[in-house]
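Lab notebook page, bench 4
Experiment: in silico fold of construct C2
Operator: M.H.
Input chain length: 297 residues
Purpose: comparison with the prior construct
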Amino acid sequence: MIPQTSSTGHITDATDQTFMDLVVEASQTQPVLVDFWAPWCGPCKTLTPVLEKVVTDQAGKVKLVKINIDENPGIAGQMGVRSIPAVFAFDQGRPVNGFQGALPESQIRQFIEQVVGGTDNAKEIEQAVAEADAKLQAGDPGGAAQIYGAVIEMDPGHAGALAGLARCYLANGDADRAGQVLDMAPPDKANDPAIKSVRTAIEMMAEAPEDVELEAARAAVAADEANPAKRFALAEKLVAGGDLAAGSAELLTILRQDLDALEGQARAKLLDVFEAAGPKDPVTIEGRRKLGSLLFS
């Protein structure tokens, strides 16, 4: 049997049930290696002790979590593990690198050094993206775009930076350029939530009724405030113009009168607004809170 514990404190065993805590959550603060193994696997018996030795030598810069796939097949299946040993490196809650087979110690050291070294650069990138996000939220798309652009030069496939730069173009009413930026995303990032969020925003900009001007829509609501169809048309115009906050407010007004208004269109549009704004945007955070109070009051 492969040893199950280590005196270093940086090596532990996990199950399908503890994977989220020991790997996904733990990797938010430091890289975590996941070693998928089984007692019958000969190469595993060669690899695991070497992994433990190298991880111990890192003195806390990285953790090693071992998963016996015979007893815990769930996570291995979800990650597409078809042969063992298989090792994945997790950082910031997601897999960032990996290898299969029993590598020699020198290659394992190189792999771990790349993982540990890469996380420092990754953290700098994430801090830069967070700074750009804050500038965009504060109404400075120009300043945000400069930072997003710098990040993309370092990491051309960074979904958050691509989505952020696209939002900068949207803030200036340029949906075409925003779409071009999103098209730069590699295939494996095309369905990233950040990318999908901006695509939803672009789609919504094209959905507003063309035969109604914004001021006319406002006037129609003012003349008949209880009419959900007229308020919905106003919400569509506001959202299409990029004013998600005002559009959300109009949709919530409709839902306060009737949660199933317009055969559910108002609620569906509000959920689209939340997706277009993104999960961290105040429009989404405050809007979900208000919608929740309506649903459960």
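Observations: Residues 11-103 form a domain with the Glutaredoxin fold (CATH 3.40.30.10). Residues 53 and 105 are 9 Å apart (CA to CA).
Next step: discuss at group meeting.
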